[in-house]
Amino acid sequence: MSSSVETRTGGNRSPGGRHNNGRHPDLARIVRRETHSSRAAVAIAAAVLVMVLAGYGLLEAAVHAIGQPPWLIEPQVAAEQLTALPAGISPLLLGAIGAVLAMLGLIFFLNGIAPGRRARHTLAGAWHEAGRPAVVIDDEVIASSLARRARLAANVMPEQVMVVVSQRQVMVNVRPTSGVPVDGDALLAAVQDELDQMALDPQPAARINVAPSGVVGA
C-alpha cells in the first residue's frame, strides 16, 4: 500500500502572508506524520498509571482520615516499610521488583527520546519542490517487490524467499532448490538494482542470506 500527497503551486503563502516559493508548508509535516508513529498510546498508559497511583493514595488517605481500616495498607505503614528497605523483604523479590521498575522506566525513556517510526519508506526525489507529490510506501510492498526480483534471480519458488525490510537494512533469505546452486553475488546485484530503481528514503542496505541446505524441488 502506498499513498501520495500532492502540492499545489501558484501563490502559496505562509500563515504570516509571506511567499514560500511554491513549497507547501505542511507537506514535510504530513510526510513525517505518515512515516513516524504516534506516542499517544505510551502517553496515555503513563497518564493512566499516574492517575491510578494518585487515586489509590487519595483513597487510603481519606480512609485513614475518617478512622476506617485501610483498604490495602496504611500510608504510614507503607512509608515506614519503604524507608526500612531492604529489611523485611527477600533480596530475590526486591531484585525482581527493581528489574521490573527499571524496565518500565527504560521503555518510557526510550519512547520519549527515540524517534518512533512506522514500517514505511518514502520515495526519494524532489518531492519538497513545488508541484511534486510525496509518495509513502509500506515496507510490506517493498518486501513483496524485492522477493519477486530475488525469486527470479535465484530461480526458486515464492515460498523459498523471505524478505525482511527495516529502516536501514533489507535482509533477503533464500532457500535454494536441492542440486541448483544460487549465485549470491548475482542475487545481491539483482536486489540492489531493484532498490536503486525504487530510490527509497532512507535507502536501506541489502544483505543476502542463502541457506546451506536446500529444499526438494517439485
Number of helices: 6
Estimate the mean pLDDT confidence.
77
Task: Specify the biggest β-sheet.
Answer: 4 strands, antiparallel
CATH architecture of the domain at 139-210: 2-Layer Sandwich
String of helices and strands? EHHHHEEHEEHEE
- Runs in which pLDDT lies below 50 for 5 or more consecutive residues are 4-23
- What's the end-to-end separation, in Å? 32 Å
Strand percentage: 5-15%
CATH class identity of the domain at 139-210: Alpha Beta
- Assign a percent range to the helix content: 40-55%
- The Rg value, from CA coordinates, equals 28 Å
Strand order of the largest sheet: 1-3-2-6
CATH topology of the domain at 139-210: Alpha-Beta Plaits
Shape, per Cα inertia axes: elongated
Secondary structure tally: strands: 7
Structural class: alpha+beta
Q: Topology of this structure?
A:
Layout: E1 2-5, H1 27-35, H2 40-65, H3 75-83, H4 91-113, E2 120-123, E3 134-138, H5 139-154, E4 161-165, E5 169-174, H6 184-198, E6 200-201, E7 205-210
Parallel strand pairs: 5-7
Antiparallel strand pairs: 1-3, 2-3, 2-6, 4-5
Plain-language structure description:
The structure is a single chain. By secondary structure, the chain is of the alpha+beta class. Among the domains are: 41-82 and 90-113, no CATH class; 139-210, Alpha-Beta Plaits (2-Layer Sandwich), CATH 3.30.70. Helices cover 45% and strands 15% of the residues. The protein is built from six helices and seven strands. It has a four-stranded antiparallel beta sheet with strand order 1-3-2-6. A three-stranded mixed beta sheet has the order 4-5-7, with helices on one face. Helix 5 (139-154) packs antiparallel against helix 6 (184-198). The longest helix is centred in the first third of the chain and has 26 residues, at 40-65. It starts with a strand and ends in an 8-residue tail after the last strand. The model is unreliable at 4-23 (pLDDT under 50).
